[in-house]
Each structure stands twice: as structure tokens, then as C-alpha cells.
Amino acid sequence: MSLSEVHLLPEVHHWWPHLSARAKQQLEDAQDGVIPDEVRREIERILGASVDDAARLGEGDRAFIRTQGEAVD
Fold first, then answer.
1. Cα–Cα 20 to 30 A to 34, which of 4, 11, 26, 70?
2. Nearest to 57 by CA among 73, 34, 37
3. Mapping DSSP to helix (H, G, I), strand (E, B) and coil, where does residue 27 land?
4. What is the pTM of this model?
């Protein structure tokens, strides 16, 4: 899949804080940015808009998610 064919999600900071703990864990465990259908539906409810079935977490999204699990001093 070329870069032009990659479908990214809307800005992660808009929906991540509102996800259930279960959905957050599923995304933390996701391989290659694949988004489980259950999580995609939850993101759609949060955004009030559909998310392309081919949407994937981008590297920036994954980096953001990793920082959310880090302890803050």
C-alpha cells in the first residue's frame, strides 16, 4: 500500500480522551495501526461522523497514544 492509499483517522487528540478503557487498550495492542471494528464504531460515535473502514493509525497517532500511557513526574 502506497502512502497515497493510506487512510488516516481524524486527529487523535479529538477522540482519544473520550474512548472507553477497553477501546484504548485495543488500540495500544493494535498491530500495524489496524483499528478493530468495535473501536472504529466508538470513534464514529465520539466524532459524530463515519470513519473509513480502511483507516489506520498513523505513526503520529501511535506516538501520541504511547505518550498517554506514560507516567508524568
1. 70
2. 34
3. helix
4. 0.82
- Residue 4 one-letter amino acid: S
HSE-CB for 58 with a 13 A CA cutoff: 13
The angle, 0 to 180 degrees and rounded to 10, between the axes of the packed helices 59-68 and 21-29 is: 130
pLDDT tens per residue across span 18-68: 999 999 999 988 878 889 999 999 999 999 999 999 889 988 999 999 888
- For residue 32, the Cα-to-chain-centroid distance in whole angstroms is 11
Residue showing cell 505513526: 59
Sign of CA pseudo-dihedral 68, 32, 59, 14: negative
